[in-house]
Design a protein that fits this description.
By secondary structure, the protein is mostly beta strands. It has 4 domains: about 80 residues, Hepatocyte Growth Factor (3-Layer(bba) Sandwich); about 80 residues, 3-Layer(bba) Sandwich (Hepatocyte Growth Factor); about 70 residues, Hepatocyte Growth Factor, CATH 3.50.4; about 80 residues, Hepatocyte Growth Factor, CATH 3.50.4.10. The protein contains 5 helices and 26 strands. The protein is globular.
């Protein structure tokens, strides 16, 4: 079934590869140049895109890159493209690629037409299309395990297990674990054999940029799942007008202290946080040994929740005069922010939104409801070849996908 999309470009530029997969023989450096893809600021673009699940083996779609991410196989790469707000198609460099060491590279791409400008046969590359028009599962099941593949980084816990199956079971049962790497019994050095590395990636809605802007409203889908598989309700703990200085782990944009708490709660290394209201900075902290607080205006600090259901009432708050900039899937015209909120909540691809009201300074953007999302599926920060290790993903999503299928 054809589906109509609208999208917004804010004087956007897209990195275009000058067929780097073809030019490796000449140079190992990627040749790039910048092209403007937005002729007008905040222009509306419509195109028709069919649901296309098929993959084109040994075919490259050169150029029009948005970004690249690491991915262990082409199916995972396709899911990354599906969850990226503007990716429409992709090219994936497989493990059997021989021209350089860029294995496991997933290049996300887009064009105004929704179709690749060029299709070039190339051994070691598989290309395909986003599954956005196919009504995809929000949390895809990733059952595959990868022999002699290392998911490098993002470790938060280690233990020793008899085999990779037990390592995967531990990862599935641990609410923080998204993927793992297991070191087998013949790995060198011997002292880390049978070691199971549990790893995480972001599962909460990370708004890319939060700004104050008159004439807009922003908020979240009511159907976001922050914590899962726990029925007891949590008692949130906040410290008003209080800072916890030092021990900074990471600073992220957040719309509120409650949003900041959710971000801290899904990061297993976060022990407490401070939210700065004047710049929307959520500062995640790590110190399991002590917590020193001090009074400070404009700052709210607090603690994460563990093994319980987070209070998600903050998802229903609309933030007037706040813009969630970027990560647009599309926009639709409507008369009020409440309808925008309902549309976002009803769309499984939408995680948050910004609505531009009729008082906005630029009439071109008035009455637009921008639906937005970021990637929340497990995504290793790096994927490498490494002998005598096994990597894979938690099977939590496979359980939820099976339940979803049974209830349809």
């Amino acid at each position: 079934m054809a589906r109509l999309y609208s999208c917004r470009f804010t004087t956007a530029v897209v990195l275009q590869r000058a067929s780097p997969l073809q030019s490796i023989g000449k140079t190992k450096k990627m040749q790039t140049h910048w092209i403007l893809v937005g002729l007008l600021s905040l222009c509306s673009l419509s195109f028709s895109q069919e649901c296309s699940r098929g993959l084109q083996e040994n075919m490259d779609f050169p150029g029009t890159d948005i970004t690249f991410l690491y991915s262990p196989d082409v199916e995972h790469c396709q899911q990354l493209c599906t969850q990226h707000p503007s990716c429409l198609f992709f090219s994936y460099i497989r493990a059997d690629w021989t021209k350089d060491n860029r294995h496991f590279h997933c290049y996300l791409k887009s064009t105004p037409s929704g179709q690749p400008r060029v299709q070039t046969p190339l051994i070691g590359v598989t290309s395909g299309f986003s599954l956005k028009p196919c009504n995809p599962q929000p949390n895809p099941c990733l059952p595959q395990v990868y022999q002699n593949v290392d998911f490098l980084g993002a470790d938060y816990r280690f233990l020793f297990t008899a085999d990779y199956e037990e390592c995967q079971r531990v990862c599935t049962q641990d609410p923080n674990c998204q993927f793992f790497t297991f070191v087998n019994g013949v790995f060198t050095p011997e002292k880390i054999r049978f070691k199971c590395h549990l790893k995480y990636s972001w599962t909460g809605p990370r708004t890319p940029l939060v700004n104050r802007k008159a004439g807009v409203f922003s908020g979240f889908s009511h159907n976001l799942q922050i914590t899962q598989y726990f029925t007891p309700a949590c008692q949130s703990k906040f410290f008003a007008k209080t800072d916890i200085p030092g021990n900074d782990l990471e600073t992220l944009p957040a719309a509120s202290a409650e949003h900041c708490q959710a971000l801290c709660s899904v990061n297993p290394r976060c022990t407490y946080f401070s939210f700065v209201s004047n710049n929307f900075h959520c500062i995640l902290k790590n110190n399991p040994n002590e917590m020193v607080i001090r009074a400070k205006e404009g700052v709210t600090s607090g603690l994460p929740v563990h093994f319980c259901q987070l209070d998600n009432s903050w998802l229903k708050v609309q933030h007037e005069g706040v813009d969630f900039q970027g990560s647009d899937i599309r926009f639709e015209l409507m008369n009020d922010p409440f309808t925008c909120e309902k549309i976002c909540s009803a769309d499984p691809n939408c995680q948050f939104y910004t609505y531009v009201n009729e008082n906005f300074r630029d009439p071109v953007h008035r009455r637009r409801c921008y639906l937005k999302r970021v990637i929340t599926m497990p995504a290793p920060p790096r994927v490498n070849k490494l002998q005598n290790v096994v990597s894979g993903f938690s099977l939590k999503s496979c359980v939820s996908s099976a339940l979803h299928t049974q209830t349809r």
